[in-house]
């Protein structure tokens, strides 16, 4: 039953009681009994008034937008306490008092405003009426007149109450200029209101601070992403310029030295021949480095063209591409059934080509290289393994081999630019996977990587289908 | 057969001359080392006004004065010259250079190989194709 419905019966009862008191002697009702009933009714009336105020406030909290909540609450409080002016403020993280609501006549005098047009009182400036209200632990009532700054509306009397949640003051109510004195009853009403508001205001402040922090974090993340995108683009441009522009002087070096050898080879002694060969070798290495840097930049930055790719077909093509290297090393490259994946075909080809080529290059000195490519189904991922019977990798070198331009074994024995595995890692990461190696010196290496299975098991059952 | 070689790198000029020398075709090579020179040499393609109308143009892209793209635009913009096959020979394999050249109606784009033997082989193939396989346009 809404509290309003009780007003009439309570009023009727009080009126009846008055009649009883008047006629009490005839009815032989002791006046103490009448007084007791009267007191009970008065308490009921007060409780009913409180309930009505709380009901109105609840409606404000439930229905009113965040920005308007403070002034709506203040309106109810001013009405209930018959006050002309007042404020409902919260304490922000710096400890400053912020008044999103304040009766206009007072608010217009306030000089310091924040972005939301809310009056703000710095903690260090707390003084006078506010200072008194803010430093009090409970409800205070004071009678004026008060000394106020020039132009400030005259304050005749003030009542204030802190809003305390779990021992911490989170806000304040301040009402002033009631035509009559503030009573103990008013004090009690304001206390009840402050108690009701406390948990709601506290939760709201926590939520707002959380939102603000999240907004800051999101903005920072957005900035970081756009920085990364820009630097990736710059890297791609730089790598492309470096690779293409390097190629021109590189060609001149290469063709000039080769032309020298071809035209004047018979005039060169053994030492001179050795030197020209060394120059040609170095130029070749420089050339592949340029190409690898370009591939690396592409693996990092090129947009993925995701299509359905049969990994088996890719590996077969890689074996074909590496035909001369495989023949020269008398290597044997085999594969098990491999799945169909959603991947960038060019990058996947590059990935397998680098791994198979590495496996052959780092063969042991004894038996011919054997390379086995296989795949195992995991949870939503495929784990691929490229296994060789080569020299293997010492545990202390494992991390280094994935860094660009780092090589572990001697260059003569295993020629390469040292960027191949860095390219592989990037390609795997671009596909949402990870890459690692399982190896020990003399026992061969198994390079493993995961690729997310976008397609599903159905498509993967027949790798040649 | 008349070939106009527009190339500023002396090593590449030497290699090209050697490759063309060894071909079974009787080829006269006219060498120009910059873009402006090439445009002047071609003129409007009419010999009576001092112009030249070669059977094939081998065009480098990175050239002093006017670059290869400008020379290409000039050739393909002249009524007397536009039917001459132009083979772009560039050290760049950059996709944008390839696209742009074909967009300007280059007849063929070849990225010069880094290795001498491969480059000579490419030159021989180009000559063999244009003079041995393809039909060339007659003077308009």
What's this, in brief?
Chain A is of the alpha+beta class and 465 residues long. Helix content of chain A is 53%, strand content 17%.
- Show unreliable segments of chain A: 111-116, 455-465
Tell me the helix content of chain A. 40-55%
The portion of residues forming beta strands of chain A comes to: 15-25%
CA-based shape of chain B: globular
Total helices of chain B: the number is 5
Order of helices and strands of chain A: HHHEEHEHEEEHHEHHEEHEEHEEH
Radius of gyration of chain B (Å): 14 Å
What percent strand of chain B?
A: 15-25%
The end-to-end distance of chain A, rounded to whole angstroms, is: 74 Å
> Could you tell me the mean pLDDT of chain A?
80
SSE topology string of chain B = EHEHEHEHEH
Number of strands of chain B: 5
Number of H- or I-type helical stretches of chain A: 12
For the sheet with most strands of chain B, the description reads: 5 strands, parallel
Commentary on this structure:
- The complex is a heterodimer of chains A (465) and B (140).
- Chain A is built from 12 helices and 13 strands.
- The two termini of chain A are 74 Å apart.
- The longest helix of chain A has 81 residues, at 184-264.
- With 465 residues, chain A is of the alpha+beta class.
- In chain A, the strands form 3 sheets. Chain A has a 6-stranded antiparallel beta sheet. Chain A has a 5-stranded mixed beta sheet with strand order 8-10-11-13-12. In chain A, strands 7-9 form a two-stranded antiparallel ribbon.
- Chain B is α/β, with parallel strands linked by helices and 140 residues long.
- Helices cover 41% and strands 16% of the residues of chain B.
- In chain B, strands 2-1-3-4-5 form a 5-stranded parallel beta sheet, with helices on both faces.
- In chain B, β1, α1 and β2 (28-32) form a beta-alpha-beta unit.
- In chain B, α2 packs parallel to α3.
- The radius of gyration of chain B is 14 Å and the shape is globular.
- Chains A and B meet through α6 and α7 of A and α1 and α5 of B.
